[in-house]
Design brief:
Length: 475
């Protein structure tokens, strides 16, 4: 047993990432000290602060970890969960560093966490805690447009980001770039269109790209394309919900959906929007009329399918269930859903795993677009939309004159339309995810790397070394 394993033989979450990093380092001839520097967390801020809830004073435990300062600002979401601890936040911050490097987003990695269960706390108290947490970050210079920029993660969303921005602005009034202190804000408060669904859409683009590669599909005995592929998704929050919606629209068959309270299954496919209305109306996915209930939600991961997408929490596929997983592709929408032991078992079984440090990078990619929008103080498309529409109209007129034919009003509308903010964001995201996938895949092939995770880490380490060299820190 290694020194990084606990009594039961399990690795800490941070050690899991170090293990993946070390596997990748074997493919690189980089000085040990430099590798150690890349792996280490640059700053860990652990805090306790009091919040009056009703008549009681509660002491809240919270964290912000800046894993790497090789590029600034640092960037990463804030998680609200009773499972939050230092090891988890450090690991998630490290994943952010590698993720940003892979998708060419110029940030260092960071992550935040507050140890609360938002489902059992009133909105008023969640707001109090969020605002106090923000003021603690401001006090220690752990937040700011050029320092560290939080975003949503598990248990948080637009609402929390909006409170963070408002608190920052009230304590830093006059900062013309204050909007860029946090991303994932509502559009009405400086957010960018397309951020909410960005991670789920990125997951969709990444998996679609793999499914379009004939050689890879042949290797696991599947046809190319998404149509008809059987998919299971665990976790129907921000990431899982949007991913499910995009796969359903693309013609994939969502055979099972799993939540905390249980899972539902229909071999012929679930109508995703109907399931979500049912969830909204009843508060649970269980007892959906067109599906069977699975009481033990973890069992849903073990059903026969083509693609399994864990989109809830870490370590859900471990050494005790990995052998029973029947999926041919696993898309890691959540951070760290597969333990290193399970990774080895699945690799032996020939499962293709698309790793988290690439696959769920859609969120940070669009957060980058939001940050740029906030710093430039102008909405995407404001300068180009009308210009493009005028140019398209002129071009169409020339073509119609040459061809002596008129297009229909409906066709004209499509041809003339200039790009809106959402078009820029979606195309930027799609391009990023497609490029990222092929960079990892090409590196895997050219360097004969055993799997996509290790190749993704190699790509990330190379990019980070590159920026250290550009900074002249390590000549
Ligand atoms: P969320 O809070 O919106 O949703 C999580 C969902 O998982 C909830 O519906 C919850 O009920 C469900 N869940 C919890 N425990 C479960 C269990 N045991 N079985 C089944 N479902 C369970 O969180 P999110 O933002 O969608 O994040 C999900 C994962 O994606 C996390 O690992 C997060 O770090 C990662 N991620 C999120 C983003 C983002 O932009 N939100 C970006 C990158 C990565």
């Amino acid at each position: 047993m290694s020194k990084n394993q606990n009594k039961t033989g399990a690795y800490s979450f941070f050690n899991c990432i170090e293990k993946n990093f070390d596997k990748a380092a074997r493919f690189l001839s980089i000085e040990k000290g430099l590798l150690e520097q890349i792996k280490a967390c640059n700053a860990v801020y652990r805090m306790h602060f009091p919040v009056k809830m009703g008549k009681e004073i509660k002491v809240i435990e919270a964290y912000r970890v800046q894993h790497s300062h090789h590029k600034l600002p640092c960037k990463g979401g804030i998680r609200y969960s009773m499972k939050v601890n230092q090891d988890e936040v450090m690991t998630l911050a490290a994943l952010m560093t590698y993720k940003c490097a892979i998708v060419d987003v110029p940030f260092g990695g960071a992550k935040g966490g507050i140890k609360i269960d938002p489902q059992t706390i009133s909105t008023e108290n969640i707001e109090k805690i969020t605002r106090r947490y923000t003021s603690e970050l401001i006090k220690k210079n752990f937040i700011g447009p050029g320092i560290d920029v939080p975003a949503p993660d598990y248990g948080t969303g637009e609402r929390e980001m909006s409170w963070i921005f408002d608190t920052f602005l009230s304590l830093r009034s006059g900062d013309v770039d204050a909007l860029a202190c946090v991303t994932g804000k509502p559009v009405s408060q400086g957010g960018v269109r397309g951020r909410k669904e960005a991670t789920g859409l990125g997951v969709f683009y990444g998996i679609r790209e793999l499914c379009n590669v004939k050689e890879d599909m042949n290797s696991i005995g599947l046809d190319i394309g998404l149509i008809g592929k059987k998919i299971i998704i665990q976790g129907l929050g921000n990431v899982g919900y949007h991913a499910a919606t995009f796969f359903h629209k693309a013609g994939a068959i969502i055979i099972a959906l799993a939540e905390r309270e249980g899972a539902i299954y229909n071999e012929k496919g679930l109508n995703v929007s109907k399931v979500f209305s049912h969830l909204k109306n009843t508060g649970s996915i269980l007892n959906f009329p067109e599906a069977k209930n699975i009481e033990n939600t973890e069992k849903a991961l073990e059903l026969e399918c083509d693609i399994l997408i864990p989109a809830a929490l870490e370590n859900v596929i471990h050494k005790n269930n990995a052998n029973r997983i029947k999926a041919k592709i696993i898309g890691e929408a959540a951070n760290g859903p597969i333990t290193p032991e399970a990774d080895e078992i699945l690799e032996k079984k020939g499962v293709i795993i698309i790793p988290d440090i690439y696959l769920n990078a859609g969120g940070v990619t669009v957060s980058y677009f939001e940050w740029l929008k906030n710093l430039s103080h102008v909405r995407y498309g404001r300068m180009e939309k009308k210009f493009s529409e005028n140019m398209n109209a002129e071009l169409l007129q020339v073509i119609e004159t040459i061809c002596k034919k008129r297009v229909s009003t409906k066709e004209k509308k499509i041809i003339l339309r200039g790009p809106r903010e959402i078009d820029f964001v979606r195309s930027g995201l799609e391009d990023t995810m497609i490029n990222g996938f092929h960079k990892i895949r090409d590196l895997k092939k050219s360097s004969k790397i055993e799997n996509m995770r290790t190749a993704a880490f190699v790509l990330a380490i190379n990019k980070i070394i590159d920026s250290y060299e550009k900074l002249g820190i390590f000549p």
